[in-house]
């Protein structure tokens, strides 16, 4: 019985909505001098939206390219995280926390930046420079600390993985520095 009253109330509200829309259409037609049964004209399409002096094949808006550098940074960060999983014993706690935070944090940041590019929600240039500088500092610091912690250890598989992880982190820090320079020199 309650569902019957809800359905009848919904029908009544829907009916009132259609009546209200019909009245609004009628009033609009009277105001514009248009007949109620006429069809609204199609919107006008402007074929020339470019300002004078701009070539039609020129890019219409600033869009930074999907950078191979960002993809390389992301893949190296994932590689460092994988190697970090297999060689986690970095000696001291600070090195382990710094490396874990850097690798995992920048996977999230870089994945978000690339997803934003794919959704055409571009990152501001200053923020991109900030993230690149931060990545450079964090990856270089993590790589140096990891190499320093493992350079005098006995030669084992874990040591080799850790030295490789530190080397890749240093390389990724240099790539972040190159990304910073390219982003800074990029025209607005």
From TrEMBL:
This protein's UniProt keywords: Membrane, Transmembrane, Transmembrane helix
Membrane-spanning ranges: 93-117, 129-150, 162-184
Any one GO biological process: septate junction assembly
InterPro entries documented for this protein: Ssk
Keyword Transmembrane helix (UniProt): yes
Record bears the keyword Nucleus: no
GO CC annotation: plasma membrane
Listed name of the protein: MARVEL domain-containing protein
């Amino acid at each position: 019985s309650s569902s019957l009253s809800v359905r009848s109330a919904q029908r009544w509200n829907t009916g009132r909505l259609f009546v209200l829309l019909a009245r609004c259409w009628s009033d609009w037609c009277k105001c514009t001098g248009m007949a109620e049964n006429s069809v609204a004209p199609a919107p006008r399409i402007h074929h020339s939206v470019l300002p004078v002096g701009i070539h039609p094949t020129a890019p219409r808006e600033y869009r930074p390219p999907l950078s191979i550098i960002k993809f390389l940074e992301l893949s190296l960060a994932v590689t460092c995280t994988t190697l970090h999983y297999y060689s986690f014993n970095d000696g001291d706690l600070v090195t382990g926390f710094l490396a874990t935070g850097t690798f995992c944090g920048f996977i999230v940041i870089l994945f978000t930046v690339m997803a934003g590019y794919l959704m055409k929600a571009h990152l501001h240039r200053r923020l991109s420079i900030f993230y690149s500088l931060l990545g450079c500092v964090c990856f270089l610091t993590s790589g140096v600390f990891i190499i320093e912690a493992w350079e005098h250890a006995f030669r084992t598989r874990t040591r080799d993985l850790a030295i490789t992880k530190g080397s890749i982190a240093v390389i990724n820090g240099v790539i972040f520095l190159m990304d910073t320079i390219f982003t800074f020199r990029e025209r607005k």
